[in-house]
Amino acid sequence: MKFKCVKIYFLVILILMSILQVSAQSVNMGGNLFDSGWRFYRGGAQGAENPQFDDSKWRKIDLPHDWSIEDIPGTDSPFSLNAISQVSGGFTTGGTGWYRKSFKIPEILKGKRLRILFEGVYMNSEVWLNGRQVGNHPYGYSSFWFDITDNLKLEGENLLCVKVKNEGENSRWYSGSGIYRHVWLLVCDSVYIAQWGTSIATPYVSAGEALISVKTTLTNQSSLDKNIKLVTRIYDKKLQELSKTETTKVIGSGKSSDLTQELVLKNPLLWSPDSPDLYKAVSELYADEKITDKSEIQFGIRSISFDPVNGFVLNGKALKLKGGCVHHDNGPLGAKA
Fold first, then answer.
1. DSSP character for 275?
2. Distance between CA atoms of 90 and 186, rounded to whole angstroms?
3. 2 has pLDDT over 70
């Protein structure tokens, strides 16, 4: 009976994964998972960034992916006593890896802005689209993105190519190698909320009320000046609206602008480890009375201070900070875990 339950459990997981992968193939406004249908080659590949390059013999993979945890070519183990990283990298090898993905853009996205977002690539990554370099990112643990609109082809195949180099000593722990986190295709109008463009602060917090400050960076990449309106609402965990504000402004063509909005919440539920209450800030951007973008951010309301007697103080109470350093790798799954 127990064995049958285990089989059913894994069958359900496979079905859910299939549903998620199918849904990721369509392109929607907002974020689209871009993990499936890549080709990978471990080693040098001169000219692989060019669309004419033949990658038919490359391995087909889905992301996330970590090549350092895979067997070294020609062996049955990922480990080598000659690894440059030695014990700090778990005796695994890095080197160079190439990723390529072909994709088409539907006609309905004409006039939209498209960005490619990488949650994490270890490390020294270079990115090309249709043979033109769109950028690079040396660091391996931070997310990054590029606007690829101007290099896109609305008809025919587009080719996205990523070169990754993990060479030499670099960490005091196992880092992995490759595109080890998700990749997203982001779609928005020409008037939009900037990527990572919303920040929330609580400059005043008490048991009776809290002041919420929402700073939003807006960008107008259309050919005309735009009359915009930013509407921000605060919701509780039951999705009940607690506060609302709106701001209007004219943003020039090709310009960006920061807007700061303030909202007041009465009798806020303060966040703490014992009571991790969260709120949601939803900002809707309108240009010429048409909604063009939307952001949703969860946040907690709390006060923080330090003093020489009590140390760290959360919501007026001393709190001892206890924890450990847990890295993102997990045994045979490597960094993609």
1. S
2. 35
3. no
Any residues with CB less than 8 A from the CB of 164 and at least 6 apart, and which? Answer: 96, 97, 98, 99, 121, 122, 123, 124, 125, 177, 178, 179
Backbone φ and ψ for 167, nearest 5 degrees, come out as -125, 140
Integer Rg of the chain from CA:
24
| Mean pLDDT confidence for 311-315 | 95
Contact between 249 and 259 under an 8 Å Cβ cutoff? The reply is yes
Q: How confident is the model at residue 29 (pLDDT cuts 50, 70, 90)?
A: low
H-run or E-run covering 42: strand 38-42
Q: Domains in the chain, start-ordered, CATH in brackets? A: 27-188 (2.60.120.260), 191-302 (2.60.40.10)
- Tokens linked to 148: 């690829």
The single-letter code of the amino acid at 70 is E
Q: What pLDDT, on the 0 to 100 scale, is given for residue 190? A: 96
